[in-house]
Amino acid sequence: MTPSSGPAMSVPSPGLPEAPQRRRSLVAALATLAALACLLLVLVVLPAARSDPYTRQTLELTGSAADGGRLFRLNCAGCHGLAAQGLVGPNLHGVERRKNDRQLIQQVVSGRTPPMPSFQPEPQAMADLLAFLHSLP
Ligand code: HEC
Predict the structure, then answer these.
(1) What is d(CA 72, CA 135) in angstroms, rounded to the nearest whole number?
(2) What is the rounded average pLDDT of the residues 54-66?
(3) What is the tens place of the pLDDT at every residue in 121-136?
(4) 20 CA distance to ligand 1 centroid (A)?
């Protein structure tokens, strides 16, 4: 017998060889879908879930850099310097390039980096502080 398997086998059931092919593309489509879902989760859902109500409320407000400056001189200047030039705490000019708004809020409220204490400003006061930090050259 000659093993002419290829074309001889596809004659009786031409539909059969296509089935695994179709299954493979289904798997590929599902894998793509899963990858897209993961991407969506990482880029959209998690960041939104990570920001607590306080942070969300603060970010919706428009801050005043002048009011933020007053708050800064009262609460922060002792460590960061009157001109935010750095003293016990670091220089805050250009801090917005190192930390985004969520991180800046965390820095102020968390108390995670002693000796900087945990502050509990009202959302409007926090928005003002953010506006002040953004106004630093
Ligand atoms: C008792 C001193 C102290 C006070 C008061 C203080 N800070 Fe700080 N702050 C620090 C220190 C020290 C660090 C550095 C913490 C670290 O990263 O280890 C810091 C870090 C920061 C950072 C991050 C800087 C960076 O380069 O990433 C920001 C922003 C900041 N402080 C803002 C404020 C604001 C706004 C206030 C007032 C509401 C404030 N700080 C009050 C000591 C202080």
Answers:
(1) 12
(2) 96
(3) 999 999 999 999 999 9
(4) 61
